[in-house]
Amino acid sequence: MNSYETHEHDVLVIGAGGAGLRAAIEASAAGCSVALVCKSLLGKAHTVMAEGGMAASMANVDDRDNWKVHFADTMRGGQYLNNWVMAQHHAKEAPARVRELEAWGAVFDRTADGRILQRNFGGHRYPRLAHVGDRTGLEMIRTLQDYGVHRGIDVFMEMTVHTLLLDSGASDLGRSALRADTSSGMSARSADLPRVIGAFGYDRPRGQFRVWKARAVVLATGGIGKAFRITSNSWEYTGDGHALAYEAGADLMDMEFVQFHPTGMVWPPSVRGLLVTEGVRGEGGRLLNKDGKRFMFDDVPPLYRNQVATDAEEGWRYVTGDKNANRPPELLTRDHVARCINREVKAGRGSPHGGVYLDIAWIKEKLGGAAEAHIKKKLPSMYHQFHTLAGLDITKEPMEVGPTTHYVMGGVRVDGDTQMSTVPGLFAAGEVAAGLHGANRLGGNSLSDLVVFGKRAGEHAAAFAKEHGAGAVNPAQVEDAQRRALGPLERKTGENPYAIQHDLQGMMQDLVGIVRTEAEMTRALEGIKKLRERAASVAAPGSREYNPGWNTAIDLSNLLTVSEAVTRAALERKESRGAQFREDYPAKRDEYAAFNIVLRRGGVTDAMQVVREPLRPMPEELKKVIEENK
Amino acid sequence: MAKPAADKAYSTPDAEPARPSPGPSTPGTRRGVFKIWRSDGTGGEFKEYTTTVSEGMVVLDAVHQIQAESAPDLACRWNCKAGKCGSCSAEINGQPKLMCMTRMDQLPADTPTTIEPMRAFPPIKDLVTDVSWNFRVKKRIAPFKPRKPDAPDGTWRMQQADVDRVQEFRKCIECFLCQDVCHVLRDHHKHEEFIGPRFYVHAAALEMHPLDTADRVSDLKNEFGIGYCNITKCCTKVCPEHITITDNAIIPLKERVVDEFFDPLTRLLRVFRPKPAGRP
Description:
Chain A is α+β, with helices and mostly antiparallel strands. Chain A is 36% helix and 16% strand.
């Protein structure tokens, strides 16, 4: 059949954002040969789009901060569905990961005494986010990239991984010395699954097939935002790692929890979904409906009544630093604000283009002539973004904003210490892994997630690689993958992949979006089944070289898998918690606090199974930490 | 009136089709004519495409729409579509720009819009060029090497005022438009002897980093060809991040080269002290 180039390394890292780069650096430092495969050019991954900062309790600005407070904040934000092992590692190790970035050349904003400056963010008790203006993600990825390229890592740019290769040979290799977390029940399952021994894929510029043989594989592929129509995510976010892991037999977990950021651009159409930072509301931006009403004051959840300003005046005092004032209702949690905006639009009180108004220009009532300069100084990229793309001056006019798909809390279920999945030799870190964020992620916890768990995944993948020999590639598996990959190119007639992708995005947006019901999601499952049938006959004319139609056709299967996982998990969780809002079950239910929802291949039909996995009991000392910080 | 994109058989995954009109809110809608460079990497030609141009659209939207409507194999590199990743560099009506940040309503409506790849790099296909040379160049530049930590806990102290200028350079999104427009590369093909504006900015960010102790001045003169730059400032003009490349990065680096290699007093001192100690 088709020929392919073969590469052989100890560790293969798939994805070169913050997590993938950090994993590659760590595995390389452990003496392993490392291949780093990325869909884009190096340094272009989604990490560049992160704005706010990375959360780490360095206590540079408020010395009351420490890992315990960060741990408790993260668990509360995640509604206690988080993997507490990960939340603990994250809170303890994030400060060291920030300092390490500085040692590698990152230039964070400074405090008056010359240390790394930290800023406030939603859900974090103290100023905790190390940052560089509103481009922290760029600083992180460039630092890791520039450090990493001098570490002898083999980088494969603009390549797509299509299938994970599983060991066909001596299976005892895959079953020995698994350092899985025994108390979580993961090792028992691991022993039944064949080990991952590499990956099959292709380079997009030439369309040539490749096989990367490796003793351990780290997934660091990011999220799934492109399953939805309105998203702040780039084209790369097609759930590749989620689907690759699932196909290889690994568990996915918490997939019902998709974070919708309340404020994305809605106009012009071409930039719909592009993020409008929380910082606008942090500077005093108010949300108004078409009647000019500040609607957020109408709906304050009982839990937060004592923490929210009673009037606009108190809200303004809060954002200008009065520690005795309560926050304006615009600064409630992301899930709540997104739902309120959604409600206004559905009730016909939205702006002309289907959003609501976000008004920062009003602060001239408070600051007079200084307002314009203040806005430009505090929100430079927002000013630039609206000025360039919408022809709108945010110092003079209100913006139109609406919710946008931003992040998936769910992902590959991993061991909290090693980041290894239930498939031996397969690791996951960053957005593609589940556990740290539970039902809802706090802003700023993503960038720290990338480096804390990227490092851990790299370290343990390297250890695994050293303990295990090379596996045997099964030629039949490679041939099968080639056949499936070439299908769309070889079909002379068939549907356009863009049309199917577009229909899937629209359906997920409408039926499995911010507000969910059983009836709509049942329809979505039917719809996914039909789209899968259509996708099976998709055609992508043209050559193999840099053919975007073909690439889209290949991504489709991943998008369908993650869409099904999100929908099935959301149906199973008959309650509203964190990012999941069920109109038919609008309250939180205690019995649902006891388990995570896991999805895996299985059964006689090899269909997607939905399993409730009980949470591991938390040790007393961590319970105490949470109590002390309530 | 032109048919809105929403009625098309296909629509792009990302360029949102015009929504069912919220009132008369598709005022700017027109048919746009595009001349797009099509090439398999050897030779090539402009091909003409027509698509609907709606309000607020950027050039990258038009390319996506054309991909979805009539040229699914049209190759184009892009990623964030928010001016943050620097992937979609191209020459639009002859001007080096990011396709995602160039609005159609800033371009003349009465003439076709030409879109072609960056011309300073080898073509791969259509709008995509081989920019791998840039990645190889960066590897040749001595990496960051910090001084010993200032505090017992292994951390450093730096004042904001001392990092401001480095932070300007670190805004770079590596779109390589400055490389594309630099005549030393574009017209004289000095890729072996000259690293280009992007990497002078990179070198400046390292050289002026308050913690860095490595010395790149000799390399800048001998290996990286900084003398070739004759300060035409074309790079500064096209930088989408508005980095003042020439004035803030290249000229200060040239001054360091002059100080170290051509200043008579320094040359004399170098006899006794081979390398300048502190920096910057």
